[in-house]
Automatic annotation (TrEMBL):
Its EC number is 6.3.5.1. The gene is nadE. Catalyzes the ATP-dependent amidation of deamido-NAD to form NAD. Uses L-glutamine as a nitrogen source. It comes from Marinomonas fungiae. GO terms for cellular component: cytoplasm. This is Glutamine-dependent NAD(+) synthetase.
Amino acid sequence: MTIRVAMAQLDMLVGDIKNNTESVIAQSLKARDEQQADVIVFPELTLTGYPPEDLLLRPSLTPRIEMALANILDQVHDIYVVVGYPREIDGELFNCAGVFYQGQILGEYCKQKLPNFQVFDDKRYFQAGTAPCIVNIKGAKVGLSICEDIWHPEPIAQAKGAGAELILNLNASPYHIEKMGVREQLLQRRASENQLPIVYVNYMGAQDELVYEGGSFVVNAQGHKVRQAPWYETGLYCVDFTIAEDRERRLEVLAGDIAPTLDVEASVYQAMVTGLRDYIEKNRFKGIVLGLSGGIDSALSLAVAVDAIGADRVQAVMMPYTYTSSMSLEDAEEEAKLLGVEYSVLPIEPMVTAFMKTLAPEFEGYARDTTEENLQARTRGVTLMAISNKKGYMVLTTGNKSEMAVGYATLYGDMVGGYSVLKDVFKTLVFRLSRYRNTLGYVIPERVITRPPSAELAPDQVDEDSLPSYDVLDSILHMYIEKDMSAEAILASKEFDRETVYRVLRLVDLNEYKRRQAPTGVRVTERGFGRDRRYPITNGWHIGE
């Protein structure tokens, strides 16, 4: 006998319980009628979308979920539906997975391991379950688990002890650079140590800063991967099981297609495209406007914007000032032409001059400093926000993680915007991603990639006048931000100049107030600014500790 399982790798909208439920119903019927599936498995908290955050505290959550479950039970028959949702049981809220068939709930599992670290806050909302859930599906004993459960040995061993022959694992596992391989190794270990095949179903899409890359997959009882859904694609992906009863009864997996693994540059680039696309579309922006400086950050951001929503919905604006080089003007124009976007040149010198004239009495007696440089950046911010207000376009911020880490950005200036695709991308990775994007089609002029980076806010200015080389800077930042290493630990690990390390770390700590006011953006590392890293602005911590 064969059991066909459809992995529903879908993109849901957080809080839209009604439409999410309709999607579950439609996809279930499609899996039944077009794929001849016996079972369809949806990701964790599908009905609310993930993560619903404090929407879980709304009093109206329970009646909405109960109505959604009733609709699924009423409208879907002749296929087993396994779906995730929050549910109130005896006055407590649980993260649940239910199995529905022929108008009945055959079983309901409550997530046992509640992550409460990095981007996860499960213990803020949910109580932990304690018991396994085993459901008979076409003669097979199927156990349920939810996301974090698979990272711990106990829930799967418990299901095995209760008689499970197959594990269905519902996930909302967000992307970061290191995670693809880690997940696969983890499931291989869980499957082989319990001699159970595991179906791992993940979200595809984005929610604010979190991106879910899909990549649902199946391992057999020996821990070998036998089915791999594509990355960054929604769809229904089927896998077949047979019940074998020769010497010993067991469930065997029939091998299927295995999508190739993406390299780092490809996966990060797709994460940025997915994050930006979902943010624009789910928040119903008409399009994107961004400042195009002729530099590499804005060039890469423009390419991502076009790949996310199309050139016809993207506007690039060059805002030259006295210090803007002819090279920057030429490169920005070429970038816009290569990508086919609307392109405007709006000189800001008249506006900056007006500001300076108005402020002259206040500045009298003070030497020229970064105030005048910041005024240029803030004039550009005002210009972009005016276009945004008038046209309904979202301003895409173009700063990278290296700059945001050390505060090399102007609050209410080049930090103005609604979203950033480079927020969690170090400058050294920006260069790699730019070269990667050009392998898909030449859109970033070579000179933009090779010229020394500059904010062009002063004569002959380059970034490395005030910062270490980006190779050195990013290495220090990686250890301090993502590994939480102290200054002395960083110095002990590599041959860095002591003064440079302490200066960089001091800049990171001083600029927490800026990052707290920065727009949200795509998370691609294990420790991004935002939900991951929550440091107090006001504190007396010493860098060397």
